[in-house]
Amino acid sequence: MLDLHGRRQRYAWGSATAIPEFLGREADGDPWAEIWFGAHPLAPVPTSAGPTLEELIAADPLPMLGEDVARAFGGRLPYLLKLIAAERPLSLQVHPTREHAAESFAAEQAAGIPLESAQRTYRDANHKPEMLIALTRFTALCGFRTPRRAAAILDGLGTDLTDRLHRLLVENPTAHGMRAAFRTLVSASLRPSPEAVDEVVAACRARSEAGASPSPRIDRFISLLAEHHRGDPGVVAALLLNPVTLQPGEAMYVPAGALHAYLHGVGIEIMAASDNVLRAGLTPKQVDADEVIQCVSVTAAPPMRVAPERQNQTSIAYYAPVDDFELAVTEVEAGGAPNLVPGSGPRILLGLDGEVTLRTLAGDRMLRAGQAAFVPASDGPLRAHGAGRFAQASVP
User: Which annotated residues bind Zn(2+) (predicted)?
Assistant: First the structure.
């Protein structure tokens, strides 16, 4: 087993206190948006062995990953585990399919755009499906409503912009009508003015105050988004999307092509090892609306909630419909014998609370809240005892 020293990301939307409290560290006044645990080249994670996890895997992939995983994923760790703390809304975004990412990454490489450039859209050649498990109450937007439901949300707001969107969806209540409505909001040639967006926000607030909203939650989300991104057309796009609230322990899967925005809360994210994010709005970062429109799925779909499955007396698992990752949570109680932790292959463990002793063929180590460890495939079965809880990222 190897200790992992996660890499902090200081994005402006992060909380200044949530992650430091979780890690038992002093807050420094700056945002702690994410902590990365993995082998992605954009955030090399140091290990107790000295080299980064990426370097150790590249030097000897078979014992680190196991033969099956090394062969299936080209000698690379296929997932990335993150701790995320959103104090303010994240960008309205979508992730590409593997095929589209590979083509677009190759094109940007051929054009000579540096990986670290602000003009770069594709940071790697991989897709980025992801799953979020809430540690606190977590709010988000994810996926498009049905055209008829979105039209009902827009109806009666009485602004020129919402009347135009409403007409598009009523006259063509299909995915084509929804794509036209979304394009109206984010396309560079069609996007509304900040004044038109402000008018919609005011109408939503007035409707909410009058108790006449067909979706009080989405009107609250509109006000929240407008506080941080006044005049951004992405605020209005939220009226087309599903609002989501996750309670601690609940999970949501976000496939390639699903338009989404995380709003507030603390959670664990697991995803394919990629940093490909296509942004449509709600951000000071680069927006590429044309690329978003090309990749986004406008087919109506409810948020994909993932119910945990009981593996044994101490572990539950969250299974996503991809080959890159799965996530389990194990909770052990004091006084018990070491429990076998389901799973195999390369695993990353993240302590959530308490103290747990981990045991493999390679030895023992203690895991506390906020600490992380990598278990190579060659370490064999994993057992745990003590009094605490930890998350386990692994390959299905």
Answer: 93, 95, 130, 260
Q: How many CA atoms lie within 13 A of 338 on its CB side?
A: 11
> Which residues, other chains included, contact 54 with Cβ-Cβ below 8 Å and sequence gap of 6+?
39, 40, 41, 44, 45, 77
Cα–chain center distance at 279? 13
Check: CB of residue 276 under 8 Å from CB of residue 96: yes
Q: Catalytic annotation on 120?
A: no
DSSP for 257-280, please give it: T--EEEEEEEEEEEEES----EEE
- Flag whether 93 is marked binding: yes
Q: Measure the CA–CA gap between 144 and 18, rounded to whole angstroms.
A: 30
Is residue 341 within 8 A of residue 356, CB to CB? The reply is: no
Q: Are 301 and 252 in contact (CB under 8 A)?
A: no
Buried b (16+ CB within 10 A) or exposed e, 129-152: bbbbbbbeebbbbbbbbbbebbbb
Helix (H, G, I), strand (E, B) or coil at 60: coil
Has 260 been labeled as part of a binding site? Answer: yes
Question: pLDDT of the chain along its 396 residues, tens only?
Answer: 999 999 999 999 999 999 999 988 899 999 999 999 999 988 889 999 999 999 999 999 999 999 999 999 999 999 999 999 999 999 999 999 999 999 999 999 999 999 888 888 899 999 999 999 999 999 999 999 999 999 999 999 999 999 999 999 999 999 999 999 999 999 999 999 999 999 999 999 999 999 999 999 999 999 999 999 999 999 999 999 999 999 999 999 999 999 999 999 999 999 999 999 999 999 988 899 999 999 999 999 999 999 999 999 999 999 999 999 999 999 999 887 888 999 999 999 999 999 999 999 999 999 999 999 999 999 999 999 999 999 999 999
Cα–Cα distance measured from residue 77 to residue 65, given in angstroms and rounded to the nearest whole number: 7
Amino acid symbol at 92: L
CB atoms closer than 10 angstroms to residue 121: 19
Among the listed residues 8, 76, 279, 347, the single catalytic one is: 279
Q: How far apart are CA 86 and CA 33, in angstroms?
A: 6
Residue 95, marked binder: yes
58 CB-near residues (< 8 Å, 6+ apart): 75
